[in-house]
Design a protein that fits this description.
mainly alpha; 83% helix; Pentapeptide MXKDX repeat protein
């Protein structure tokens, strides 16, 4: 049992940096363009409006150099989109 817990801890530690890199890739012009296209295709107006608001906040944070704010807003936009 202890061996399994240790293995899980090592795996989580190894995967954490990969997740952080993925988040930073959300704050690029390319990802913003993909998100714009995906939001445009949304049919639920309430979720679409929320996703667009969060995407706009993410873009503003990206332009001001606030990577943490960009990532936080992008996570909310992804949630609105069911991602």
């Amino acid at each position: 049992m202890l061996r399994l817990v240790m293995l899980a801890a090592v795996a989580a530690t190894m995967l954490a940096p990969a997740g952080a890199r993925a988040d930073k890739s959300w704050c690029t012009d390319e990802h913003m363009q993909k998100m714009d296209a995906m939001v445009a295709k949304m049919t639920d107006e309430a979720k679409k409006k929320s996703a667009q608001t969060n995407l706009d906040a993410s873009k503003a944070a990206m332009k001001s150099g606030d990577t943490e704010g960009c990532i936080a807003s992008m996570k909310l936009a992804h949630t609105d989109m069911g991602m």
